[in-house]
Design brief:
The protein has 331 residues and is an alpha/beta fold. The protein has one domain. 27% of the residues lie in helices and 19% in strands. It is built from nine helices and 14 strands. The strands form five sheets. The protein has a four-stranded mixed sheet. A three-stranded mixed sheet has the order 4-5-9. Helix 2 packs across helix 5. The longest helix has 20 residues. The protein starts with a helix and ends in a 6-residue tail after the last helix. The structure holds zinc ion. Zinc ion (ZN) binds next to helix 5.
């Protein structure tokens, strides 16, 4: 995406959020969605005032930038899937300020992506400048330095979604079986939110090297042995407690994708390993004694598929522990 395009989007969003905050009619392409709305509440998509900030809830708003209506007739259901993903994280985390999520249509990227819009300088550690993503920064501090801008971008490749993902028709219960070969959309949203909330770094993916600008993320700052000969691990104390040992971080040293098979509790799984997932996920997928917590976790670097059912993963206390260690308030 070019700088110009990004800037245009920001301007559009700024205008829309002003409308939203004033309670004025909002463009048809925009739907705020609040965490406190029940799934059956047909008023869920109406503009509402800025949510009340509390210290015990994970509050958020969702705005959709979809002027071509690429999401089509499933639009509201897709947003309810996103709501379910937010609520899944909300079982573990909360914040001092609501997070603004902007959903964008981006069919140029391979799949979905999620990221904080920007990061802020936090501290210097071991000679590096540590930056904190804006979403966890807001949750942690309650400060909102740029109240007209989104905190999180969720970019959707609609074609890929239709091909590979399954839109849960009942995301409030998440009990319907996921079709074979598909990934539950709530799972995908929750995973991308995990990146936006802090599973994110600046280290060079294939070597672990600190970039020339010497900036690293909070997530990076809690990793050790992030070099070619090492076995990177995440060392946060809450993660240590949740996992039982230092958490292996995804770091595949082969240059392209590999397919591995696994047998866990008598069930066979297949996973595709790719170095593009390095250093922002957990799981090494090579050690025979690796815990199922990392092999089958939401923020794992390779999802394990079984032949007889699709994939649904919920946020676990391990996923939450990593965010807790990087500063997100946890229950
Ligand atoms: Zn990921």
């Amino acid at each position: 995406m070019t700088l110009k395009r990004s800037f245009t989007k920001v301007l559009i969003l700024a205008a829309l959020l002003v409308s939203f905050q004033n309670g004025a009619p909002v463009d048809k392409s925009v739907s705020p969605l609040e965490a406190t709305s029940s799934p059956e509440d047909t008023t869920a998509f109406k503009p509402r005032p800025t949510p009340v900030t509390t210290t015990t809830e994970f509050n958020y708003t969702v705005t959709v930038d979809d002027p071509q209506n690429s999401l089509g007739a499933d639009r509201d259901l897709i947003l309810k899937n996103l709501q379910a993903a937010c609520q899944d994280w909300g079982r573990y985390i909360y914040g001092k300020a609501p997070i603004r999520i902007l959903v964008r249509i981006n069919n140029d990227q391979a799949r979905f992506s999620g990221a904080s819009r920007t990061s802020v300088f936090l501290k210097t550690a071991n000679g590096h400048n540590v930056f904190e993503d804006i979403a966890p920064y807001k949750l942690r501090t309650g400060k909102d330095p740029e109240p007209r801008l989104p905190d999180i971008y969720l970019d959707i490749n609609v074609n890929f979604m239709r091909q590979a993902y399954w839109i849960d028709p009942q995301p409030e219960t998440r009990t319907l079986p996921v079709p074979v070969g598909k990934v539950d959309l709530v799972t995908v949203f929750a995973h991308e939110l995990g990146h936006a909330l802090g599973f994110n770094g600046f280290l060079e993916r294939s070597t672990g090297a600190v970039p020339a600008h010497n900036g690293i993320s909070v997530f990076d700052s809690l990793m050790y042995e992030t070099n070619l000969s090492g076995s990177p691990v995440f060392t946060g104390t809450k993660t240590l407690s949740a996992y039982g040992s230092k958490l292996p971080v995804t770091f595949f040293t082969f240059p392209d994708s590999r397919t591995n098979t696994y047998s866990i509790a008598g069930v066979n799984y297949v996973a595709t390993l790719h170095p593009s997932q390095n250093l922002t996920h957990y799981g090494r997928y090579t050690a025979s004694n690796e815990s199922e917590k990392s092999l089958q976790g939401l923020m794992g670097g390779a999802w394990l598929f079984r032949a007889d059912q699709g994939l649904r993963i919920r946020v676990s206390n391990l996923d939450a522990a990593v965010l807790c260690d990087i500063g997100v308030p946890c229950r």
